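Task: sequence design from structure.
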């Protein structure tokens, strides 16, 4: 029997404090860098951390156990964690050993071929099985590197480039990486570069070329404070927009972030909300009715895809005439996001208490949940939010949402 919850709000008046997880994008990069370069970085991982981060951490610990000698095949399960899949693949090639990577059927159908091709061209023995789509790796680590000029496609995911950038200083030579194709999600590559430079590495991007200097232990800084997750924060901006009245403090969230999803703040005027920052975080308030005169009529998500669902749902609920573009990338996510969100929004338009399918996709579940401010909704498979925000439903309860378990 599939778990379902019924979600509603009695008044539409929202007050309270919310706590966000740390950015999984930042934590995953810190984990890879910490273990590749043996840096004593403090990385906050708890039972409330995003499952993606926990999956990557457990697999890295398994690879780096003293008992693993690299002569027998080690099987690693990355479940549905796309970032862990791509980053771990590169890490294993440069670390050396004999590995098999498996995951969910959906994950293994997501883009990975271009990264495999890049790793092969660098000199690594990597293959993907035709039937089960598992990845097989047999390498001697950096000894296999045959060239210092690398090429990787950026047209499906910036994580391919990020994965290589994080490995490059290990080689001991200056590395040049050329990005091919029309690059998407470049702010995430820039996040990788910023994190590395803050830790004392030397990395620079000039348009479609990234230059990386060799790793020097003496120059490395050993402290980096991870940020609270702006992707998680976007749902509370949406709640503020759909509320009758609100005063929400998002604890420890800061502006001037490394994260692309801070761009949600551009919507404050068109959504009729305002926010202020103080020492404790960001305060969201309902300011006015939605302001169509302040609208940017076109929003392109090719560089900030995780914002798309939040904005599409909110604009739909507010009946704002925004054109959403750059959505092709969404078909490569945990589900075919744009197709699926349109299907669920049709239910919202025509059903008194819609039952939303979540397609095993955390962002579909969280983006649709805000519609419970307008009418009761049901969310199937609510545990899917564990991928990025395990405490999401608890945070909604703190804001006065009613949450009931439903037997279906």
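Answer:
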């Amino acid at each position: 029997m599939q778990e379902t919850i019924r979600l509603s709000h009695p008044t539409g008046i929202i007050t309270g404090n919310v706590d966000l997880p740390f950015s999984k994008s930042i934590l995953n990069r810190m984990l890879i860098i910490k273990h590749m370069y043996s840096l004593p970085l403090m990385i906050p991982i708890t039972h409330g951390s995003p499952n993606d981060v926990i999956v990557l951490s457990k697999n890295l610990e398994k690879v780096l156990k003293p008992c693993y000698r690299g002569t027998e095949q080690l099987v690693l399960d990355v479940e549905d964690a796309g970032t862990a899949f791509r980053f771990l693949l590169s890490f294993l090639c440069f670390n050396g050993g004999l590995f098999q990577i498996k995951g969910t059927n959906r994950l293994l159908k997501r883009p990975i071929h271009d990264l495999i091709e890049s790793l092969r061209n660098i000199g690594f023995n990597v293959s993907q099985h035709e039937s089960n789509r598992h990845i097989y790796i047999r390498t001697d680590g950096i000894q296999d590197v045959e060239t210092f000029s690398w090429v990787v496609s950026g047209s499906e995911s910036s994580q391919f480039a990020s994965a290589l950038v994080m490995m490059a200083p290990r080689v001991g030579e200056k590395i040049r990486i050329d990005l091919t194709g029309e690059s998407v999600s470049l702010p995430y590559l820039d996040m990788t570069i910023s994190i590395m430079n803050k830790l004392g590495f030397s990395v620079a991007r000039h348009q479609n070329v990234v230059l990386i200097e060799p790793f020097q232990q003496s120059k490395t800084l050993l402290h980096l404070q991870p940020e609270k997750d702006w992707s998680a924060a976007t749902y509370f901006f949406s709640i503020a927009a759909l509320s009758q009245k609100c005063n929400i403090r998002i604890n420890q969230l800061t502006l001037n972030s490394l994260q692309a999803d801070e761009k949600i703040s551009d919507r404050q005027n068109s959504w009729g909300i305002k926010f202020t920052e103080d020492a404790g975080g960001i305060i969201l308030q309902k300011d006015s009715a939605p302001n169509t005169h302040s609208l940017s009529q076109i929003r392109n998500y090719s560089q900030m895809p995780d914002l798309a669902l939040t904005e599409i749902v909110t604009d739909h609920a507010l009946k704002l005439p925004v054109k959403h573009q750059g959505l092709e990338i969404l078909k490569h996510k945990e589900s075919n996001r744009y197709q699926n969100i349109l299907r669920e929004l049709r239910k919202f338009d025509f059903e008194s208490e819609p039952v939303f399918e979540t397609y095993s996709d955390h962002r579909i579940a969280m983006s649709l949940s805000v519609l419970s401010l307008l009418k009761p909704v049901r969310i199937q498979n609510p545990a899917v939010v564990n991928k990025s925000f395990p405490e999401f439903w608890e945070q909604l309860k703190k804001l006065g949402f009613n949450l009931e378990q439903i037997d279906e």
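The two ends are 7 Å apart (CA to CA).
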